[in-house]
Design brief:
This is Lysine transporter LysE. It is found in: Cell membrane. It holds the Pfam family LysE. Keywords: Cell membrane, Membrane, Transmembrane, Transmembrane helix. By secondary structure, this protein is an all-alpha fold. The protein has one domain. The longest helix is centred in the last third of the chain and has 32 residues. About 4% of the residues have low confidence.
């Protein structure tokens, strides 16, 4: 089996496992549909690419130096996620008026939230540090090899986001009544709050 295939399978198993990022993606998809989670996913992917780059460059010392910054970043993300969850819970079941348009998602804020969710877990870099030397010849890593690793991460994450998004969309359509919408909204809010708590305690 190709070393890059091994990396892809290991990364997919790790990235698809339930955690704050997946909870955030599911919450977005449950409340707004498949495409609603894409900007958040973009931030998460950017965070994972930064983690990979740090591991490849051997910047583990940077994580220690910037420890306090990671803590601040982490709790900023926690507060925002919990706030979003509470807001979603309070407005559960609210239907838009005929002439009322849904508020557009702030793409920059969503990307920043996804990036924060990923970077606030510096331990994630250990995944790459542990995996890469045993799978990829780091000393012989070329720009093309690095680009291939980045492509694998982007493709795997896209599949995960679309997969969870479709699953959430199916649930949304099965429970489309007003009462069900309130339930879905509360579930989405609870998942956002849960994601914040998971980030806070990890």
């Amino acid at each position: 089996m190709s070393e890059y295939m091994v990396f892809a399978l290991a990364f997919a198993a790790s990235a698809a496992s339930p955690g704050p990022e997946i909870a955030g993606l599911l919450s977005r998809a449950l409340s707004g549909g498949v495409f609603a989670s894409f900007t958040l996913a973009l931030g998460i992917i950017l965070g994972k690419l930064l983690m990979l780059t740090a591991a490849v460059l051997g910047l583990t010392a940077l994580v220690e130096v910037l420890g306090p910054m990671f803590i601040v970043l982490k709790f900023c993300g926690v507060v925002y996620l919990v706030w979003l969850g509470i807001k979603k819970w309070k407005n559960a079941g609210r239907m838009l008026a005929v002439n009322e348009k849904p508020k557009p998602v702030n793409a920059i804020v969503d990307i920043g939230l996804g990036l924060t969710m990923t970077l606030s877990n510096p331990i994630a870099i250990l995944f790459y540090i542990a995996l890469l030397p045993g799978v990829i010849n780091i000393s012989g890593l070329t720009l093309n090899s690095y680009a291939l690793l980045c492509t694998i991460i982007i493709c795997v994450m896209t599949c995960i986001v679309v997969g969870y998004g479709i699953m959430a969309e199916v649930v949304r359509k099965l429970f489309s009544s007003a009462n069900s919408k309130a339930l879905m909204d509360r579930l989405a809010g609870a998942m956002m709050i849960g994601a914040g708590i998971l980030i806070a305690i990890r």
